[in-house]
Write a structure and sequence with these properties.
Gyrase A, domain 2, Alpha-Beta Plaits, five-stranded mixed β-sheet, two-stranded parallel ribbon, 10 helices, 7 strands, binds iron/sulfur cluster
Length: 283
């Protein structure tokens, strides 16, 4: 009987084991694998080819053989905007990376999706540690301490607005707390998300500010000042034929995509119900 392989015990051995497991996972798929937005294929020379998945059949790509080039590739969107969240589905196109082995592949993947390869491996092994929102919030300090007060409903809406596949390709594994699962589509991607990230924490802080708007500030149809600000900005931009999202992590801006997704969940029902702050139908 053969012995079971020893379980890696140090950070270094987990990195090595994940590197090998990831390469083997690619090797066993003749058509290649999609990880996030990256299509990875084994080459006839024994290395790996990486490109944006929408470029699967593209012939004219800028080819590079330095795995560290992935850092530049992942930095900006197609439109030149900084990408604060590498798992956002806005990886630019037009490039191809040729790396010579599993080590080069790991270096490139770590720039494209930091820590994702190790998380993917630990999740498959059943040993990925998951941290709930409440545990994460309890560790926050300074201006982020206030996210400890975000209601469960606020966390749920923030997660739907911030973490679904249309805005983030990771599969959220974390919950509000031990007894309160996230009630959302967690995503189909290969990259697990074991803990609320810094972008989510920043968004949760903004949602908490929305929650804190005093009921006395509501107008006769029950809109808060920030809801009115967002609606006005949206109408103004739409009427000028110029609805452009603010930058990805600028949650203080009314036309931020995640902020608008949150409004879809919380403001639209209010507008459609036609009820004022006291819950009375309007005249
Ligand atoms: S917390 Fe949400 S937005 Fe952040 S990486 Fe995880 S799934 Fe994506």
């Amino acid at each position: 009987m053969s012995e079971a392989p020893a379980r890696p015990s140090t950070k270094q051995s987990v990195a090595a084991a994940s590197r090998e497991a990831f390469a083997a996972w690619i090797d066993e798929a003749p058509e290649g694998r999609v990880f996030g937005q990256v299509l990875i294929r084994r080459t006839s020379e024994g290395g790996y080819s990486l490109r944006q998945r929408d470029d699967a059949g593209a012939a004219k790509l800028v080819v590079n053989e330095e795995p560290r080039e992935a850092r530049e590739i992942s930095k900006l969107t197609e439109w030149g905007e900084y990408r604060p969240l590498k798992s956002s589905p806005n990886l630019r196109r037009g490039w191809e990376l040729h790396v010579k082995d599993a080590r080069g592949l790991a270096v490139a993947m770590n720039y494209l999706y930091p820590a994702a390869q190790v998380h993917w491996y630990l999740y498959r092994e059943g040993s990925l540690e998951v941290t709930s929102y409440r545990e994460n919030a309890a560790r926050q300090s300074g201006i982020y301490k206030r996210i400890q007060r975000l209601s469960d409903e606020g966390v749920q809406n923030a997660a739907r607005a911030c973490c679904e596949d249309v805005v983030c390709l990771k599969k959220a594994l974390w919950n509000v707390d031990e007894g309160t699962p996230l009630a959302m589509d967690r995503g189909d991607g290969e990259i697990p998300c074991p803990e609320p990230c810094s972008v989510f924490v920043s968004f949760a802080r903004r949602v908490r500010l929305f929650e804190r708007e005093d009921r006395r500030d509501l107008d006769e149809i029950g809109l808060s000042p920030s809801e009115k600000e967002d609606l006005a900005a949206l109408v103004e931009a739409a009427s000028a034929g110029n609805v452009e999202y603010a930058r990805e992590a600028e949650f203080e801006e009314p036309l931020n995509e995640r902020r608008l997704r949150y409004r879809r969940l919380t403001l639209l029902p209010k507008l459609r119900s036609g009820r004022g702050p006291a819950g009375r139908p309007r005249d």
